[in-house]
Structure to design on (439 residues):
């Protein structure tokens, strides 16, 4: 049985730890958050990821998963996985204080022969720096970087299906890290030449996603501005039918903006890395600027409609606070700047509903949720749909007709209603708008 220590037992760490424990490993999650540690040891998990509660309860009950605040717990592990956060600094670079503190905390307890993998998202060169300055002086261990590439809402499934990339400080470290993943997960393992290569893989993935979404947003704004009926979703569907090389064009979909812990910061890591190496890279900042501007763009559209109807004290139902469909994750949600823009325009009667977000999580973000969806919609002059949660998909024309004010605006930011639904809403007297859907 492989013994694994996961240092940093937050969103990614808890998924990795619970899955590895379910796969037969003896896992200890190490985190400085005493409340989190106590919850895990009770068989509970406060992380808002579908399925994680059951997996933690199952593996704790089986005696294969536990948690601790003691860094010395790494001493009993064959493999150490570091997954602490690397937030964006005030200089728009990576704040490495957490990963350095974690490495310094575990270094005195490491022993020869262990495999240590960094999974925290970092710019190229950081794993090598931590290894040379902190880890390798403490013990003869195999150090590698292995990026996490999991999406909120599907993290458990993706961890057990997506290929895993590993790049070690030397060939032996790469081989040791790859051998571990092959022994515990039935997935493809891609070995690369260095930790720096693997580090850049993660940043490249998120750069591609962020720029792709920015392209969708630019197309949507153009469709809205042109004087013809253009549905950006039809444009994207048509464009995506073109095969180039081995793959098809794959433009993603527009919405009210981009949120989450990774996409909002990782492109800035690339931008800062370019600057520090004498390069003027343009794409990262451009994509971030476009995507960060979408909440205000949506708020402006709603404000223009309401004031055009003379609605100075309008009630607005905001459906969805988390940044992703069927997830309760609210980290860097674009709904926050959307709400701020609406309030700045004079709209204070905002009713925010999100069945996926707990009251504790909402309170952490300073938001009060309306738990009764009917109450949020009742008498609303506008509805802004920010997430395609199942509860929101279940709403039909009859629900809107029963609850909304006559002639209310339905601003579709994530469900992407089809023509039949749009026609039915329009026939019922509602005004439909979508991001880039001037149809």
């Amino acid at each position: 049985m492989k013994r694994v220590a996961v240092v940093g037992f937050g969103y990614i760490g808890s998924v990795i730890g619970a899955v590895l424990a379910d796969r037969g490993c003896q896992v200890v999650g190490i985190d400085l958050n005493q409340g989190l540690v106590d919850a895990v040891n009770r068989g509970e998990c406060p992380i808002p990821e579908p399925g994680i509660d059951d997996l933690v309860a199952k593996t704790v009950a089986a005696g294969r998963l536990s948690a601790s605040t003691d860094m010395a717990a790494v001493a009993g592990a064959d493999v150490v996985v570091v997954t602490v956060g690397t937030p964006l600094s005030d200089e728009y670079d990576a704040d490495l204080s957490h990963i350095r503190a974690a490495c310094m905390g575990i270094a005195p307890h490491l022993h020869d022969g262990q495999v240590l993998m960094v999974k925290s998202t970092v710019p190229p060169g950081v794993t090598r720096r931590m290894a040379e300055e902190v880890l390798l002086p403490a013990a003869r261990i195999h150090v590698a970087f292995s990026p996490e590439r999991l999406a909120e809402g599907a993290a458990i499934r993706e961890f057990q299906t997506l290929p895993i990339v590993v790049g070690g400080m030397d060939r032996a470290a790469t081989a040791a890290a790859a051998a571990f993943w092959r022994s515990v997960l039935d997935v493809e393992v891609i070995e690369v030449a260095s930790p720096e290569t693997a580090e850049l893989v993660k940043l490249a993935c998120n750069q591609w996603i962020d720029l792709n979404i920015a392209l969708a947003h630019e197309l949507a704004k153009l469709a809205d501005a042109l004087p013809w009926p253009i549905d950006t979703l039809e444009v994207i569907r048509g464009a995506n039918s073109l095969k180039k090389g081995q793959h098809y064009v794959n433009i993603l979909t527009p919405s009210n903006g981009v949120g989450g812990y990774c996409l909002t910061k990782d492109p800035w890591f690339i931008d800062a890395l370019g600057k520090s190496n004498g390069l003027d890279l343009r794409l990262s900042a451009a994509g971030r600027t476009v995507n960060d501007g979408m909440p205000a763009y949506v708020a402006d559209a709603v404000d223009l409609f309401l004031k055009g109807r003379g609605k100075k004290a309008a009630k607005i139902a905001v459906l969805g606070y988390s940044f992703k469909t069927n997830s309760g994750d609210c980290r860097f949600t674009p709904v926050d700047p959307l709400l701020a823009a609406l309030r700045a325009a004079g709209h204070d009667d905002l009713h925010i509903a999100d069945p996926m977000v707990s009251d504790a999580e909402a309170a952490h973000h300073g938001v009060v949720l309306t738990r009764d969806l009917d109450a949020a919609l009742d008498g609303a002059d506008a509805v802004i749909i920010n997430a395609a949660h199942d509860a929101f998909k279940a709403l039909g024309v009859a629900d809107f007709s029963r609850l909304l004010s006559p002639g209310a605006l339905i601003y579709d930011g994530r469900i992407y209603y089809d023509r039949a639904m749009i026609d039915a809403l329009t026939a019922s007297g509602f005004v439909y708008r979508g991001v880039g859907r001037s149809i």
